[in-house]
From TrEMBL:
GO CC terms: cytoplasm
Name this protein carries in UniProt: OBSCN protein
Source species: Eurystomus gularis
Entry-linked InterPro entries: Ig-like_dom, Ig-like_dom_sf, Ig-like_fold, Ig_I-set, Obscurin/Obscurin-like_Reg
Pfam families: I-set
Domain Ig-like: 2-86
UniProt entry keywords in alphabetical sequence: Cytoplasm, Disulfide bond, Phosphoprotein
Length: 86
């Protein structure tokens, strides 16, 4: 299995309370396994507040819905040993 790397990392975002925000990270290979999103070091699951998806096989996205000041902090995307933060 090829080593999946991060081609295009996360970008810092500034949003207003109550808005949605989307983070994107592009990886080198489709169907990447061992992928994880975190907010403030807490692993995120796909649910009504966090939408986690993959576009075109290589672009991993995280949408945080209706953010509050509790959501301020570092977002981390990890694939294997590689990470990107914003």
């Amino acid at each position: 299995e090829p080593d999946v790397t991060i081609v295009s990392g996360l970008k810092d975002m500034v949003v207003f309370e109550g808005d949605d925000v989307t983070f994107r990270c592009q990886v080198s290979h489709e169907n990447a396994r061992d992928v994880e999103w975190k907010l403030q070091d807490v692993a995120l699951q796909n649910n009504e507040m966090n939408e986690i998806s993959v576009e075109k096989g290589k672009i991993h996205t995280l949408t945080l819905r209706k953010v509050t000041d509790q959501d301020i902090g570092t977002v981390t995307f990890r694939v294997g040993p590689h990470t990107s933060t914003a």
